[in-house]
Amino acid sequence: MVTRSPYPHWFYLPAAVVYGVLFVVPTVTSFWFSLTRWTVFDSTFVGLDNFVTFFREPALVKGLTNTLIYGVVTSGLKVVLGMLLAVLLTSQIAARGWLRSVVFFPVLVSTIGIGLTFTVLMDPVDGLINQSLAVWGISGPAWLTDPSWALLSVALVDVWKGVGLATLIYIAGIVSIPAEYFEAARVDGAGAFARFRSITLPLARPATATVIILSLIGGLRSFDLIWAMTRGGPGFTSDVIASVIYKQYQAGFYGLSTAGNVVLFVLVTAIVLPLSRILNRREVEL
Amino acid sequence: MRSRLLGLLAVVVSGVVFLVPFAFIVLTAGKTRAEASRLEFSWPAQLRFAENFLEVVRARDYMLIIAYINSTVLTVASVSIMVVLAAMVAFVLQRRPSRWTGTVNFLVLAGLIIPPAVVPTIWVLQRLGLFRTMPGLILVEVAFGLSFCVLLFRAFVATIPRALDEAAILDGAGPLRLFFGVIFPLLRSVIVTAVVVQSVTVFNDFVNPLYFLPGDRNATVQLTLYNFAGQYSTDYHLLFMNILLITIPPLIMFAFFNRQIVAGMTSGAIKG
User: Fold this and answer.
1) Which one of A28, A279, B21, B132 has the fewest beta carbons within 10 angstroms of its own beta carbon?
2) Number of structural domains chain A divides into
């Protein structure tokens, strides 16, 4: 009698079926479909036509550059603000625990709800933000209707919603730094800023890597917040690849939409994979 | 002393920045239509919470109630399936290194990074007769959530001593009894984490219902909210009541499972 392993391979099977059929198959076939002109009725092979369109059409190129801007701005701000908030929330201040909850809660709230709320708060005339700025004598921009501000405004709301997660990750990183290091630095006469620069910053590197990777993955594929706030407008000035994919899908250009997916796939992997390798390697060298 | 003041200032500023939008939601949800449309941050002249609540619930033939039912079915079904399937994968993946291990690890990471291809997924669902159906959407959510759960569970399975497996096997337990009778119950704490985090994710999901389950009759709460904003664009009091209502489930989750949520969401920070 053959002894059978108590850890049978068929345990993989149910997950493999669902994952294979609904994730792997679509991902693999997307490369084929992106090379076709594909409508509700049929699909014909057109070679790289869809990609040529994608990189020629100004509206679509804009989506590509906007995706990059959005990803870099949101993850950059989440790193900086998340780090600052984490330092604040690990120091001896009043209402620390309460403030941690307050900063984190938006992470759990519906993106659509947040988007609609901020659309109202960012109203150029009556919105609370510009009304408050007016009190200080500043006339705020038309956040969502000014083409040069729209994408940035959405990115700022994204940061507002997501910085709590970055903060938590940083808190976990900072708390794991042995207290003796800070103690020793204090004995040597290092000020608060010097302690931050030469202890917290380098030793929180794994946290920084996590925050950058997570927020880039999220930021580059971001769709719902942009869709709730501007729908890519005004014009197509705040379109990103994910919203282009949806628009082309709605318009019935399935091949072009899928080409967008392939571009997004390539973009995300081409940025995230090398970056995570670099960030993690440096961590080992320390 | 100066740093004390600075700290206090920081507390006040972040409190204002993070709380005012929520206060705005609550206040506007309690106003009359005319007052809400002024978009002011002020105390309602008349408190109309009950009236607005009833009006939102009744709007469009009790759409919100239907949407809540749909969202609940979607969340409960997809998270339960996801958790069981992912735990089975994580268990074998951690316990039995084999020629499959590398492939499975690769697929798990791919699931975290690669954005799903939308139209091909619709094409597959159509072929299976599952497009525009709740089971179809449930399976899609399962497929997209598996990776996160497998990673979470695998790390935890590693902390369960193999001696327990061996004892169970000596007692004559087969793989199924070993897993469901011994291992799965021991995973309880990490399962709570996965369930809470994924419930919030699925409940808040907008993109997948938008693509894979369109149509008013099937709307989930996120879609209702989105459609609502389009149809009743001037009824800010109702819009914000609606936002308030869909913010409550995550708030309850947060109140009860704060620790688990934080553990789950920062689990990546330790390993990188």
Assistant:
1) A28
2) 1
Mean pLDDT of A230-239: 90
Chain A nearest C-alpha distance from B185 (Å):
17
Domain membership flag for residue A87: yes
The answer for B 173-212 residues in CB contact with A (under 8 A) is: 173-175, 178-179, 200, 204, 206-207, 210-211
HEC string for B99-159: CCHHHHHHHHHHHHHCCCCHHHHHHHHHHCCCCCCHHHHHHHHHHHHHHHHHHHHHHHHCC
Backbone angles phi, psi at A180, to 5 degrees: -60, -35
Pairwise CA distance, residues A23 & A5, whole Å: 29
Judged by CB atoms closer than 8 Å, whether chains meet at A117 and B243 is answered as yes
- CATH number of the domain where residue A146 is located: 1.10.3720.10
Ordered by where they begin, the domains of chain B are: 19-271 (1.10.3720.10)
Q: What are phi and psi of B253, to 5 degrees?
A: -55, -45
pLDDT number for residue A1: 42
Predicted confidence (pLDDT) per residue in B27-65, tens digit? 999 999 889 888 888 898 888 899 999 998 888 888 889
In which region does residue B95 sit, left (phi positive, over 0), alpha (psi from -120 to 50) or beta (all else)? alpha
**Considering CB atoms only, which of A29, A126, A280 is closest to B272?**
A280
> Which pLDDT does position B2 carry in this prediction?
67
Distance of CA A157 to the CA centre of its chain: 12
pLDDT band at A13 (very low <50, low <70, confident <90, very high): very high
3-state SS assignment for residue A36: strand
> Which residues from chain A sit within 8 angstroms of residue B254, using beta carbons?
101, 105, 108
Q: Does B213 touch chain A (CB under 8 A)?
A: no
pLDDT one-digit tens code per residue, A87-114:
988 888 777 888 888 899 999 999 999 9
**Confidence tier at A3 by pLDDT (50, 70, 90):** low
- Whether residue A131 lies inside any domain: the answer is yes
Residues of B in contact with A101 (CB under 8 A): 254, 258
pLDDT > 70? residue A2 = no
